[in-house]
Amino acid sequence: MPEAPLSGFRLLVVEDDQDTQEALRAVFEMKGAAVTTAGSALEGFQSFLRLRPDVIVCDLGLPGADGYALIRQIRELPPVMGGSTAAVAVTAYSAEMTPKVLHAGFQAHLHKPVDPDEIVKTVAALALKARQ
Q1: Which domain holds residue 81?
Q2: Among residues 13, 21, 78, 101, which one has the fewest Cβ atoms lying within 10 Å of its Cβ?
Q3: What sign does the dihedral 88-128-116-51 (CA atoms) show?
């Protein structure tokens, strides 16, 4: 994989934990991505509409509306408005949740603490697939 596998891609990280949000931002920026962060589903949706990212990385356990609510809102949009944008759920929930997460509209489910190499590989694969 090239040194900057996310170069040229726009990512939206929706995570309410400030330390995790900043860690994910740093990992993705080191790999070349332009990263926007949001701390809630509402802020994430507003950022999504403005940014139109290539990939969304979203915590499921957000305050107020959760990550499921956010992905439902996005999936209700037509594809031309980003309704089919690739999304990765990042959560401390158990592996048994994966079928529910994928059924909800996410393409991948990674567990916290997230391995930086694994999340970069996952996001890069989704971003490249979306561009094809």
Answers
A1: 10-131
A2: 78
A3: negative
Query: Domain containing 91 — which CATH number?
Result: 3.40.50.2300
Q: Is residue 25 part of a domain?
A: yes
d(CA 114, CA 2): 21
Tokens linked to 67: 């990550």
Amino acid 95: pLDDT: 65
Does residue 70 fall inside a structural domain? yes
Is pTM, for the whole model, over 0.90?
Answer: yes
- For the chain, the domain total comes to 1
Q: What is the secondary structure of 2-47 as a DSSP string?
A: -S-TTTT-EEEEE-S-HHHHHHHHHHHHHTT-EEEEESSHHHHHHH
Q: Strand order of the sheet with strand 108-111?
A: 34-38, 10-14, 55-59, 86-91, 108-111
Cβ partners under 8 Å of residue 27, min gap 6: 116, 119, 120
